[in-house]
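Input record (one chain):
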Amino acid sequence: MVDWYLPLKLVHVLSAIIAVGTNVTYFVWLAAMKDRPAAEQSFALDTIKKLDSRLANPAYGILPLTGVIMILVSDGWAFTTFWILFAIGLYILVGVFGGALFAPSLRRQTELVASDGSGSAAYEAAGRRTRVTGLLTMLPVAGILYLMVMKPTP
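The corresponding structure, as predicted from the sequence alone:
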């Protein structure tokens, strides 16, 4: 009989590294593009969107699949385990924040740099919103990482 837990765990951890690592680069991209010409800002925003759709989001999709299968094949974990249940709740929160807050903010900022350029007040407000919603999205991610590594029990 093959023990699938460790190979699944490897895929799970690699997916987390890819997802979170990619997301962290957004803050670097956003900081680096500040005060650059509109064309360069547009390039940076488009690159963030590509990184999100081609790396981060697929990796975030793999995480629950491998996580659920690991629980099913493990001898000691259950969906009712405190840290697993709480991490699932935070994962849902990440999806809500990412889909309802960050993605629309990034989309709006991308539209504004193309139409108004990077000097308008609307663009500046959109940029602030993108940074804040990105941070709000990453806070529950940090919580999930804590739970996955520390595995606290109440």
